[in-house]
Amino acid sequence: MAKNKRIAAARSKVTHGQAYGLDEAISLVKGNATAKFDETVEISLNLGIDPRHADQMVRGFVSLPNGTGKTLRVGVFARGAKAEEATAAGADVVGAEDLMEKVQAGEIEFDRCIATPDMMALVGRLGKILGPRGLMPNPKLGTVTMDVKGAITAAKSGQVEYRAEKAGIVHAGIGKASFDEAKLIENARAFIDAVQKARPTGAKGTYLKKIALASTMGPGVQVDTSAFAG
After folding, report:
1. What are the residues facing 115 on neighbouring strands?
2. DSSP letter for each residue of 83-120
3. Which of 55, 101, 121, 154 has a CA positioned 20 to 30 A from the CA of residue 33?
4. In this structure, are residues 161 and 72 in contact, taking their beta carbons and an 8 Å threshold?
């Protein structure tokens, strides 16, 4: 009953169908994050694209200026000096055939997967396992690279991945409810800007159709897109 009252109270503060300015939307989301844990603040962008067409796919990484508040586990496929570099840079798990065997056994102990180019023949065998989880290293995303240290540092410092789903929606966590409003606003702007810059050549008409914010257990708050039109 207490949970239902909490949800009802949170929803009563948000006017259905109203689009708020980003600052006010962040304030509402923070105020409605009343769960007993530090809720994640999530952003969703509804884009005017059809991801089924290759020229309308939107995918990439963005480094949030204030981090995500989450510790990302990084796995690296590398050998020799590059494996040592990965370990020194703070990778959580590093290996080659041994790491491949772990993944095949269902032991996936990482949230981001990085590989050196020479390891892709090995990693390619794991496509059916890593692919559906969004963990397959990709040179276009900077996760197939010889700059192992740089990729690990980026991942650990608040870099988030975004990828359009079938309905053309892109979403990601942009921080914790405990963050200052100014930091959440800055992160939100950085994410929106990155997705706008990633507009594919095949996108026609209105690209940024809707923006919504919510905490893990809180109601969604619609954001006015006019400030981001362009």
Report:
1. 77, 144
2. HHHHHHTT-SEEESHHHHHHHHTT----SEEEE-GGGH
3. 154
4. no
pLDDT tens-digit series, residues 4-62: 665 666 566 667 778 999 999 999 999 989 888 999 999 999 999 998 898 999 988 89
CA dist., res. 63 & res. 89, Å (int): 18
State how far Cα 29 lies from the chain centre: 18
Instruction: Give this prediction's pTM.
Output: 0.80
Q: What is the pLDDT of residues 146-164, one digit of tens each?
A: 999 999 998 888 888 899 9
64 with 176: CB under 8 angstroms? no
- Whether 167 and 58 have beta carbons less than 8 Å apart is answered as no
Expressed in angstroms, the distance from the first to the final Cα of the chain is 45
Structure letter (DSSP) for residue 69: S
In the chain, what are the domain boundaries?
A: 17-68+159-228, 74-156
What pLDDT was estimated at residue 125? 95
Name the CATH superfamily, with its identifier, for domain 74-156.
Ribosomal protein L1/L10, domain II (3.40.50.790)
Contact 214, 30 (CB under 8 A): no
What CATH number has the domain spanning 17-68+159-228? 3.30.190.20
* Strand (E) or helix (H) holding 222: strand 221-223
